[in-house]
Amino acid sequence: MFLNPVRHITVDAHDPHALALFWVGVTGYAMDEEPDDDEVLITPPEPNAPGLLFIRVPDDKVVKNRVHLDIQPPVGTRDEAVERFLAAGASVYEDHRTPEGLGWVTMRDPEGNEFCVERSAVERGLTAA
Fold first, then answer.
1. What is this structure's pTM?
2. Residue 117, SS3 per DSSP
3. For tag attachment on the chain, is the N or C end more exposed, with fewer CB atoms within 10 Å?
4. Closest Cα to residue 90, out of 124, 117, 65, 63?
5. What CA–CA distance (Å, rounded) separates 41 from 10?
6. Residues 50, 76: one domain?
7. CATH number of the domain that residue 50 is part of
């Protein structure tokens, strides 16, 4: 069986460097090299996980993303992660949290790209608190 792993997830951006800095700040990914004007790659600390590649484009984002990231906080809670994203410059787009504590929050990064923040592994009972 031949597998084709995902190497990068590419995001169009007006300012690739600024958008990459936002995502470095909220994911813990690293910027591998000095960015040039047109593209910036950030990489995860885990081997074999895809990087995020930000490419300069002139056009504006006008509709909902066809592909988006789902973020599951490795520590803490979903709500704490939402607060960290807000402090870093994201905004809430749609709030799907329920009174029982289930659900997710759809957010937008500084250039309007949607992403979701899910409950953490601890909140899902997948790891010990």
1. 0.87
2. strand
3. N
4. 117
5. 9
6. no
7. 3.10.180.10
Six-digit token pair at 110? 């500084």
- Compute the distance between CA of residue 74 and CA of residue 57 in angstroms, rounded to an integer: 32
Q: Residue type for 54, please?
A: F
Residues facing residue 30 across a β-bridge: 43
Q: For 72-91, what is each residue's pLDDT tens digit?
A: 998 899 999 999 999 999 99
Query: Are residues 71 and 40 part of one domain?
Result: no
Q: What three-state secondary structure class fits 11?
A: strand
| Residue 63 contacts residue 70 (beta carbons within 8 Å) | no
| Spatial contact of 50 and 9, defined as CB atoms under 8 Å apart | yes
* CA-based nearest residue to 89, from 22, 1, 3: 22
Range of 37's domain?
8-58
